[in-house]
Request: fold
Amino acid sequence: MYKVDLPPDQRERLAVEARRKREEERKNVIFNARERTMGLDLSTIKTQVEDRKQLEAEEANRTDAFAREMIQNDKLCQIMDQRQGDQGKNLVHSMIRYRQENQRFQDRLEFDLNDPESKLKDHPARIGDEDPRLTVSGMQKFAGEDLKSEKRRVFQQEQMREWLTAQIAEKQRISSEKREAERQYELRSRELDMRAVELNRNCEESRRQLESERKSDNARQAEERRTSKQQEQAQEQDDNLAELSNWIRSDLLSENPEVSQSAHGTHRVVTDRWKGFSPEQRQHVLDGQAFQCNEKREQKTQQRLEEMEWDRNRVAQARLGTILEMRDSRGRTDLDKQMFEENTRLAEEQRTRKNFLDQELYTNKPTREYFSQFNTSTR
Reply:
């Protein structure tokens, strides 16, 4: 392959120049303290805020337009509903009025068939026996009909009277039977009441007898429980005394030194069985306690003497303090002089240490070349 120097592409060159131009503009924005605020692009943020406000304003305007249109549509719907309701009402009123004027019930062709007063307006089927309308085909008058109507009426009245008499006798019999039944019921009720009273009396007597038996049974059971409890207490007391006697005579409480001896050596003891020192050890402890008591007594005596000495010293110090207070005003100048000398000495030591740190220890200080390598690019 031969290396050929080809001219750079015009498009690539323009892209490089555009990137360099944007980099320079970015440097001007970032390295300019007036336009930069902790890495924020204020111009872009302002543009975004203005765009956001414009979008919100457009959205609010569109929402208001939709709301106004909805309100107008609602008003139109209400007007149309009202018009439709009025038209319906007018149509109903017109229909009712037309029916009342032109379609009356009595103007129908079949009204004579449906007239509710047709029977009142019509003639009766028979006015009398001599009515000329009584023809053979009308079947309203027959030859030989009901010639004994008067006798039949008298017979019917007599029969009605007999029926009434029988009914009265039946009612009287029913009434007497009812009274007898009520009397029998009352007698039965009294007998039942007397029997109930007798049963109640017997129940009360049985209840009192059961109560008495229960009380005696409870007393007997209480006495048995008391006796059993006394026996249990006595048995428990005997058991406790026996247990105490066993514990007292046991090796655990008798402080038998042989029980506490360990199998690993005579100089070791079993901690859960050891109950105390031997008489020699106890005597040694008592001697130590007596020695400590004597020592404590001597310490108290010595402390009392020291307190007396401290009291004398406090009195002497009080007197000395009075004398020193009198001399303090005269010796304050010497004290200030000593303090000034001490402060001077400390300041000299600090100055010497600072010179050592700055001139000998911390000699590797950063130069201007070290800081110039930062902030050379926006990336």
